[in-house]
Amino acid sequence: MEKLCSSCLTTQCFINKENNISNKKQCLKLNVVDWLSDIKSPFGDEYDLVEVQFKNDRKEFFHNQDKISLCKGDIVTVESKSIGYDIGIVTLTGELVKLQIRNKNISLSSLKRKKIYRKSTDIEINIWKSLKKKEHIYLSKSKEIAKNLNLSMKICDVEYQGDGEKAIFYYTSENRIDFRKLIKKLAISFHTRIEMKQIGYRQESAKIGGIGSCGRELCCSTWLKNFKSVTTNSARYQQLSINIEKLTGQCSKLKCCLNYELDAYLSAIKDFPDFESKIHTEKGVAKCMKIDVFKKQMWFSYIKNPNTWFRIGIKKIKEILEKNRKNQKSSPLEELSIIKIIQKTELTFQD
Asked: Using alpha carbons only, how large is the chain's radius of gyration in Å?
């Protein structure tokens, strides 16, 4: 019995049909839905750019100069960057390609319009499949060669061109690498042109994939196509403890999901008083220890007694700060607090 695909919950996806290309029962990474494919353009002319996906997260745009009838899932033979041809799978056609180009901030004038030659023939597809099967073998061999040359680099992926004329080796490294000897040995071992391409640690995780601490597949390897900088301020605004082990992902960088809800927190804390502000009461000066964004409450404690925290609504805090500006002290926190809680207890040990 055929297993359902983990992404589309069907048995009809490309990977399930072509099990000899990949052992994973899942859809292609960064899968998209071409929901405008059956709708004709109201202006009469069809958009001649097509989005084609290659291995993992590599996607490029090609010019359908010969007006070949294409739809999502078609295997096409396209122009490569150098000699020969490459083979990929059509992911988007028509008007949605315009939106994709706009989302990636690519200008049409700077876009190199490589051509789509044709729909791939059976011979070309068979060559492509056989090369795909060899990639994991060549990956392990290339790692051994790099290790023997004592190069401080990690080769994380190998991608063959559709005709086998070139192989791209993706690697990560913290320092600049002189890999001229490595290229010579790889060319001799694999009898093809070699291209070395350095990528970041986030891009490495996107290519390899994996399961995150949330129990789901990594966002970067399934749907996230643009990487934005993540700082510890994103965690601080969300009142998360700065525990690097919990905040970092498999790429050893801060998790991309720290930015997902950041805008909602930033808009919510605009109503809060300054966290550094201190309130003056009849019993003493108190400072803010933490906030509750959802309940719009703040926890205060006396500076002389930081172990006892008091929860107060932000409206009441604003009233207290207004009194303090007029040199008036407010009532003690015990009378203002919604609830009192002892956060810390001091333990004494006897010999």
From this structure: 29
